Amino acid sequence: MIRTAIPDDIPVIHGLIRELAEYEKASHEARATQEQLGEALFGERPAAFAHMAVDDATGEAVGFALWFLNFSTWRGVHGIYLEDLYVRPGARGGGHGRALLTELARICVERGYGRLEWSVLDWNRPAIGFYEALGARPQDEWTVYRLTDDALAALGSGSGPGGGESAGRACPLGSVH
């Protein structure tokens, strides 16, 4: 069964995020607190949304999908960016991952969103095979870039590499859609 997350799910979602980070060999990067998740999902201005995969027999949460809206300037409509999809190892193969993605696809169709997209680690062959079996295709022509921590702070304060007034004019930007 798939259901929309409720505030009481925050500890479970937090635990599933920790499990996902461990699976992805990045436990040290998972720093979100339960309080941050509660605010992001259920605060005055929610920035993200979540759905839970629940075992029909036991009622136990066995997975989750956490997502937020993005926007395509080319299509002129919102889409869903799936930040995390995780199903506990013991529940894999039971249809929970497919059911979570089906629910997000249903939301896209119902609301007129143009895309459902996500990232997958290139070494995660089981996930890649699963996604491709559903009809998803990799976007090989795009490379993800990310600013975090010190680099983000430096650029945000104007003191990053290549800073100064001419920095924006020196590099033409394009294809960020």
Structural class: alpha+beta
Rg for CA atoms: 18 Å
Trace the largest sheet across and list its strands. 1-2-3-4-5
Mean pLDDT: 91
Order of helices and strands: EHHEEEHEHHH
- Outline type: globular
Largest sheet, if any?
5 strands, mixed
Helix content: 25-40%
How many strand elements?
A: 5
Strand content: 15-25%
Provide the low-confidence segments as ranges: 166-171
If helices are DSSP runs of H or I spanning 4 or more residues, what is the number of helices?
6
Distance between the termini: 34 Å
Structure description:
There is one protein chain. The protein has helices at residues 10-23, 34-42, 96-111, 125-133, 149-156, 167-170, and strands at 2-4, 49-54, 61-72, 77-87, 116-118. It has six helices and five strands, in the order βααβββαβααα. 34% of the residues lie in helices and 20% in strands. The protein is globular, with a radius of gyration of 18 Å. The protein is of the alpha+beta class and 177 residues long. The protein starts with a strand and ends in a 7-residue tail after the last helix. Mean pLDDT is 91; it is low at 166-171. Strands 1-2-3-4-5 form a five-stranded mixed sheet, sandwiched between helices.
